[in-house]
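Anyone opening a protein record will find just a pair of labelled lines. With that in mind, the following record should read easily:
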Amino acid sequence: MGAEDAFGAGEVNVFLCDARGDAIREQYHLRALLNRRVDGIIVVGSQTDPRPSLGHDLPVPVVYAYAPSDDPTDLSLTPDNEAGGRAAIEHLISVGRSRIAHITGDPSYAAARDRVAGSLAAIAAAGLEPVGEVMFSNWSERWGRDATAALLARHPEVDGIVCGSDQIARGALDTLRDLGRSVPEDVAIVGFDNWEILAANARPELTSIDANLQELGRAAALRVFDAIAGREVDEGTTRLPVKLVIRGSTIARR
């Protein structure tokens, strides 16, 4: 949506192709787009792990969005997940939490590792210690429920939890409610992704880190415009700001 908004302002037609994570399908779409004589290409990935570069033999500029290219000379834009992890912890500390744990998804995902790195750095910067080890598994509500039950059994003193996704956070909310822990009075929860259908319909509504994907898409489109116009564009990976969206899982209504 962000890219289409930016392109629309320049009266540019947009072609959308879905490779479904298939390299052969991706090459087919790439040839089809070049045959249509497109002016530029934005390559969007499904996760923030580096993806193979399309190379430098293409006749049009290429910008990689969300999933950066594995070639450091390509132009890539991705959310700053480390900053998101820091923001989640800093917010919890600002609302009086000091015994904070982190539950997240698959450790093979760069997003999981980066969010954990940011949160641990913020905990250390505040002179605190994390509650228990970071808990890794999968990106599901079931894992959020199970992990939170195990966490509270080992560390009943926990008063804040950072969850690596909104799905995990929804599971954490379920377990806390089942165990009679009030959110946010007893335990405050922060999720990631700001997936509106989950965050806004949680009980209470879920504070979450928003990757600001619409702005990322807009920025990618503007980089394509710059390259088409012959203006110099940066190489390498640029990490764009994320934002904290505060809801009832960290701030009680007065």
Summary: The CA atoms of residues 49 and 109 lie 6 Å apart. The chain has two domains: 2-79+212-241, 81-211.
